[in-house]
Amino acid sequence: MTEPFRNLLRLIRDRRGVAMIEFGFSLPIVLLLSLTGAELTNYIITRMRISQIALHLADNAARIGSGSQLQAKSISESDINDLLVGADLQAEELALYTNGRVIISSLEPDPTNSGKYRIRWQRCRGAKTAEVSAYGNAGRTNLAGMGKTGRLATAPADGVTMYVEVYYEYQPLLKASLAPNTSFREEASMMVRDRRDTVGGNNGVYPVTGVTASTC
Questions:
Q1: Which CA distances in Å does 40 have to 104, 167, 191?
Q2: Among 5, 11, 136, 179, which one has the highest count of C-beta atoms within 10 angstroms of its own C-beta?
Q3: Which helix (H) or strand (E) holds 167?
Q4: Per the UniProt record, which residue ranges are transmembrane (predicted)?
Q5: From CA 136, how far away is CA 118, in angstroms rounded?
Q6: Cα separation of the two ends of the chain
C-alpha cells in the first residue's frame, strides 16, 4: 500500500472535529430560531401592553367627571389631558406618543337618526398624525356603532360610550422582518357609568384656561 493511499485512509477514518463541523452547520439555524423567538416574544409583549393601555384609557375615560350623584357630571379639557398623560406614563419605554397615536371618541345616540349613533367629540395625541380614526371624525353621524363587524360598541339611549383607538408603530428588538407586523391598532370601549353632561361646554367638554385641547 502506497504512502498517499495510507494517508487517505487515515483521513477517511479520522473523526476528530466532526462535532465542531456539525456545530458550524447548525449554528445559523439555531441562531435564527433563537433571534426569531426573541423578536416574537417582544412583539407579543408590546402588543399586549398597547392593548392594556387602550383598555385602561377607555375605562378611565368612562370614569372621569366632576359633580355629585344628583347631577350629570361634567368633563373638561384638563380631565382628558390627564388621561393622555397617564397613558404615556403607563407606556414608559414604548414612547407611545413618539411611535404612535391615541384617539379617544365620545360615542352617543344620534338625535336625528333613530337607532343610530354619532361621534360627539374626539381628542388625539401622538406624532403619527397620518393615523386617523377608522370610524370617522368628530361630528360623524348615522353610525351603527364603532368597532369590528359583529362586535360593534354602541351607547345606551341616554348615555355615552368612550371608544379608544391606539395605533402603534412597532419598534423591533432586533429586526422588524422577524415580527408579524411593523404596526398595529388596538381598540377598546367602555360605557360611562354615571350621567354625563353632554350639552355644556364645547360639545360636552368644558374648556380650561391655560389647557390646550388635544384636538385631532
A1: 29, 19, 33
A2: 179
A3: strand 161-169
A4: 21-45
A5: 10
A6: 89
